[in-house]
Amino acid sequence: MTERREVAIVGGVTTKFGVRPCTWSELAQEVGAALFHAVPELNASDVDSLFVGAAEPERFAFQSHVAPLAAEQMGLTPRRILQRTELACASGQSAIRSAYAAIASGLSDLAVAVGLEKMNLPSMAEANTSMACVMDRLWDGPAGATAPPFFAMVAQRHMLEFGTTEEQLAAVSEKNHRFANSNPTSQFHEKTFSKDKLLRLPLVAPPLRLGDCSSMTDGAAAVVLTSRESAQRYTQTPAWIRGTGQYSDFHNLANAGSLTEWTGLKHAAREGLRSAGIRSTDLDFAELHDCFTISEIVEYEAIGLCAPGEGGKYAEEGRSNLGGDIVVNPRGGLLGCGHPLGATGIAQAVEVYQQFSHSVPPSRQVPDPEWAMVHNLSGSANVHSVMIYSREAS
Amino acid sequence: MSSAKSTLRRRRAVTAPLDSRPTEKAETARAPTLRPSRPPPPFLLDFFPLESAEQTRLSRFYQRLREGRLSTTKCRTDGELHWPPRTACPVCHTTTLDWVDLPEEGRVYAFSAVLAGAPLGMEPDLPFVVGLVDLDGVGLRIFGRIEGAPWQACRIGQRVRVESYEAPEERVFYRFRVVDRSS
Questions:
Q1: ipTM for this model
Q2: Long-range CB contacts for residues A156-159, cutoff 8 Å, separation at least 24
Q3: A177: closest CA among A338, A350, A360, A295?
Q4: Contacts of residue B109 in chain A, CB cutoff 8 Å?
Q5: Which of A195, A282, B80, B90 is the most exposed place for a label (fewest CB within 10 A)?
Q6: pLDDT given at position A205
Q7: pLDDT (0 to 100) of residue A125
């Protein structure tokens, strides 16, 4: 077996997330232009590969074959690997994982991973239909299965089995919205959500309220990846990919098993940490997939930050906040930033890069971070994707 | 024409194991339930499946459902009971599967309600209850719509019964109905 090359993210950028009055292609142009500003040493002709994380452009933009479209809009002419990656809510991380594999193997020397989604349409029912086809459409679809009722059932079971409360769910939302408050790219920038306000928002899928759910969001993000040989050309603060893990064991909701014990995430996190040679207690911060407040709570437990059933208390006691055991979602999370499916995983990686280079506002800067985890779930938490980053190469 | 014929032949050949019981094979042959006179809504914006033997090798499922029977496939080789019904066993990877009826009742394992944000065509149903139901005694927990009580009156452990209902364009699907609100 040939030696695996070390791979780093050497720069990246996130567009404004929110309800954006523009097309999918215009988002691609915007993120392309922004990337070349954010990484001044980047030459288009040196980018040999492009990976495009896009979950449902066929649905939301009625556009297929999006990889060459994104390349054209961004002003890139890939000559080695050009592909779209689709893994629903984890499509962005999939683009990074694919770029990582390409560079580690030597097939690519300089790659861009871009993620983008344009979700806000004149007809919300059409957008909801698009979100519903992430589920097993033949069997779960006709009943009206979408993400909110599924994660609501997770919350209901967690409340029943462990006594988790609505206030504990709101603690997650309050924390992530507070971080998003000082993130100018977030959908809910400069918006304040107190716990009281969150608990008064309308129910969407009981027990989940509006503030427990991430939103329909337009946005894009891009990162540049290269090997150890070239990293210093682009930055003095590379974010090194040190470990990965991924796991999937079901798709139809009937095969989910326990709703509160996410065994897939246990496997993915264990493999990610093992391959990086660290423990969960070594992590300084984590970008966890808080598509719903309950997701973040179950994730604390599955990753091993706290004991099973203790996730609600963990949030409530501030142990996942600045000054706690670990900072979770200093970017503002999906709850605060919004969740443009394909862009989310890339934006999380941009946050890791910026945290390591101390280029985020002080109100959400993790003190001297060395290790970070990025996690995305997709669908009904039936796939878990984990990456471990370090500010040092191995 | 010749290519259409060969497609048909190929499809019959692979379908055979599922229809291994002669009586069922005969029924499958006259399966189509879609009437060409009335085109269905665009398939890609409609969650109800295309149920005819022209479109799925599991059309028996929908035929049996029409008779009020919720059924699924069971692997003849390793005895694995599947949900949803399948054409190949995911455990032993053989394709000789039998149709078996499932219990008519079960208990709610978890539920929620969709109060907003319904997919196209389901807006008139709002608010509606969905849940995971443990079917009695078979170790299957299946998802579906729950009718017969508002979400505020539903609870975990509630007994529900399976029923079939007419879906748009001559189709049929299953759902659950609350058996006893007070138990």
A1: 0.95
A2: A156/A207, A156/B110, A156/B111, A156/B112, A156/B156, A157/A258, A157/A259, A157/A260, A157/B109, A157/B110, A158/A259, A158/A260, A158/A294, A158/A297, A158/A298, A158/A309, A158/A311, A158/A312, A159/A207
A3: A338
A4: 157
A5: B90
A6: 98
A7: 86
Q: Is A291 a catalytic residue?
A: no
How many angstroms away from the CA of A340 is the closest CA of chain B?
A: 17
**Rg of chain B taking only CA atoms, in angstroms:** 18
User: Structurally, how many domains does chain A consist of?
Assistant: 1
Report the candidate in B128, B113, B121, B143 with the shortest Cα–Cα distance to residue A204. Answer: B113
Residue A104's CATH number: 3.40.47.10
Contact B143 A259 (CB under 8 A): no
Residue of A123, A134, A136, A153 to mutate for B, most B C-beta atoms under 10 A: A153
d(CA A318, CA A328): 10
In a domain, A45, yes or no: yes
Token look-up 């074959």 returns A65
Q: At residue A30, does pLDDT exceed 60?
A: yes
Amino acid present at A244? T
In a domain, A363, yes or no: no
Residue among A222, A218, A221 at smallest CA distance from A118: A218
CA distance B156 to B176: 14
CB A160 within 8 A of CB B156: yes
> For chain B, what are the domain ranges?
2-101, 105-178
Number of H helices, E strands in chain A: 14, 12
Q: B93: number of CA atoms within 13 Å, CB side?
A: 0
Name the β-bridge partners of B114.
B128
Secondary structure E strands in chain B:
71-75, 97-101, 105-114, 128-135, 141-147, 159-167, 171-178
**C-alpha A386: how far from chain center:** 10
**Is the omega angle on the peptide bond into residue B49 within 30 degrees of 0, that is, cis?**
no
A177, A339, A375, A384: which is the annotated catalytic residue? A339
Percent with pLDDT over 70 in chain B: 75
Tokens of B117: 């944000």
Query: Of A2, A6, A26, which is closest to residue A15 (Cα–Cα)?
Result: A26
In a domain, A40, yes or no: yes
Determine the residue type at B20: S
Residue type at A284?
D
How do residues B102-121 score in pLDDT, each as one tens digit? Answer: 999 999 999 999 999 999 88
Q: Judged by CB atoms within 8 Å, which residues 40-99 of B form the interface with A?
A: 45, 47-49, 83-84
Q: Is A267 a catalytic residue?
A: no
What pLDDT is attached to residue B39?
Answer: 56
Answer for the pair A108, A214: CB distance below 8 angstroms, yes or no.
no
- CA triple B72-B73-B75, angle to 5 deg: 155
A67 belongs to a structural domain: yes
DSSP state of B138: T
Q: How confident is the prediction for chain B on average, in pLDDT?
A: 82
Among the partner residues B112, B143, B144, nearest to A156 by beta-carbon distance: B112
The list of chain B residues with pLDDT below 70 reads: 1-41, 44, 181-183
